[in-house]
Amino acid sequence: MISKEEHILLHAEKLFAEKGFEGSSTREISKKAKVNVSMISYYFGSKEKLFVKIFEVRMNESLTFSKDILANDNLNEWEKLVTVINRYADRVKTLKTFYRILQREQLSNKNPHIAEFLKESKKGFLAIYSELIEKGLEKKIFTKRPRIEFLHSTVSGTIFTALNTLPVYKEFFEGDENYENQYFDEIKIHVQNILKHLLGYEENI
């Protein structure tokens, strides 16, 4: 059972993805969420603060999960890296609305609070990748040290492009109802294969 605040956030996220921040009103959000418009002011203060809150929640979810994986002593560094990336791909697939909003905000860069959230999130993932790779090299799980910037760009760029181009691919290849699930499953394998090459993982097993 989600809270009233989470309920409003979910419906606002869908509306922002559909109409953008400027095109969405608090009245429309309250109608979509089936709550009184005053509830938005009560929980968030304003439409802008509600918008920022969506980013705060989603960014924190990703980083918290990744840090928990980092602390899991039952997995080696390769297994941790795969778990983090698979989770990211699954989130992009299931939270399409949010990631479309995120891409739009990255391009417009209008809101300084959101820009800061995005910057800190990227820095958080860079730190996670750096730690995993350094430890993997120390343990001789990996044999190569790629630039972390390029590794991060490869992972996020591949998965984001996969999301954006999915409708075109599905139409071109006349995909059925299972196309999307199979597509994302294979994207995860594709990214893993790239990382094996970048990290020299296959050379060490």
TrEMBL record:
Superkingdom is Bacteria
Q: Which residues bind DNA?
A: 25-44
Short name of any one Pfam family annotated for the protein: TetR_N
Q: Which GO terms describe its molecular function?
A: DNA binding
Residue ranges of every copy of the HTH tetR-type domain listed in the record:
2-62
Q: What name is this protein filed under?
A: HTH-type transcriptional repressor NicS
Tell me the keywords, alphabetical order.
Answer: DNA-binding
